[in-house]
Amino acid sequence: MMQDGGQNKNRYLLAYFCWRTMIGLNEEIRYLMQEAGHARCIIDAGFGRIKALYRRTDCETLSDLENVVASSSTTNEAVLYKKPDGTSMYEWRVWKTFLGEQFRALKGRRSYQQFRFTSESPGIIFF
């Protein structure tokens, strides 16, 4: 699999958005990215708060980690994949495999910051 300097995840995200419009889950999706080097955002700040509290906390169990996330900020919320009884809260899918087989990578995607997908033009990415 070809790596693209930290942007490989965007290959699969673009494919996922394309797939969602193709099967009718969304009529239109607009995906706007920040330019390279300008990636600070509120989400990064939330992870930073978790990391800072985690470093100062004795964290030995999943429950401890859940408490760290919840205590790190009023906006952070821990969402566990599995419940304490071991049952799954979500269906896990290997999207990279599925999307990698069904969709080609968009060449030069690192030079674009705006993408649009529509159910009227399934399988086409406007950028």
From TrEMBL:
Residues 6-121 form the DUF7869 domain. It holds the Pfam family DUF7869. This is DUF7869 domain-containing protein. It comes from Mya arenaria (Soft-shell clam).
